[in-house]
């Protein structure tokens, strides 16, 4: 992990990545098919999974890179030398996994009736790539900080606009000069959301030959004891059937977003379409490590007073850090006090629906909750007041909200413009990806690459501090110093 100097630099937002290491050379690329074909109506190629509008929002690949250092291989030393063995084990594990998670071997294709994407389970397979580099994992510096070199550790299929040709799962295993490995995995967001991706990767890990061999030869067990559920692949039907058609219901996130976009378009017209002076639209990905001690310190500082004396106020680390981040990000931009600002965060609806979605639901099961204030109200409001609004927004998610949200996505979808007034947060703290042991132990780090909406703040578990939160966020280069100052205030 990071040195003390690197940790000091990253907390103050001025971490400088090391120079780029050696090149990555691809040595093998194969298609991986289910070990046993899923039979449905006597013809697996006729299975069509009808997607919901939640699945269709972002049909692009989302990438995650797992890093395994060679000191993880104490149980099985030959792993550091035998790339072919690792590749073969991952391939056989993926074949086994695709037999159960069979939609992952399919392709997206537009429906002939309405042109919307559905999931065709045609067993066209996933892609697995083998690569080598002379670089050492240590050359990459602090693995929690995004490094452009990470882009070389994933396989990016050529996309010509035809989704029927794009694989839904791709992976690249790269052996480093030090004997360590990275496993870069891309999964279509139309295939899985975060929790479903986590379950799929855990299933793949548990099916790999390496994992099975070690289970038989040692008494060590994985730290991730979470039970694997058999996946449920039906999508749109389950969600829409769970939602009564209440035309009076509104989805606050959609309404707020329309208001922000309308306001941004008015400002853009007033400027004659010219970009705002001094603003670069190239995002810099930064990771801020908030230790458990820092979060507890913030709780004491912001709630030390009336709320604490009452003894009846409590909040989660997510709620507190989200409120703190929202205040810091809006203050960074120096928006007018009367400007409308929004905090939107993903809410898992698996247990919010009535009845709840079935255990193992493998599709996209999240909507955005939303809070809207003026910039002045946000700046003057206490952390406690903002946390209460976050709780209210979270509790507002029910069948009617989900139905309204899905209905609002019926229309044509465009790319979300960069909005200073909109703060987006996604909570990954309940998905400890670093604990997925594809090889012989936990990953040193699991790093997401840039998402299609890079300004989203991802809250992730830190491998060395389970009570802490790593916040990965995309920032404009000229705002990094100011955001770092405001965000880390009260945390030191």
UniProtKB/TrEMBL annotation:
Low complexity compositional bias, start-end: 1-12
Region (Disordered) residue spans: 1-20
A Pfam family: Transferase
MF term (GO), any: acyltransferase activity, transferring groups other than amino-acyl groups
Gene3D superfamilies to which the protein is assigned, alphabetical: Chloramphenicol acetyltransferase-like domain
Family membership noted in the UniProt record: Belongs to the plant acyltransferase family.
Protein name from the UniProt record: Uncharacterized protein
Organism: Acer saccharum
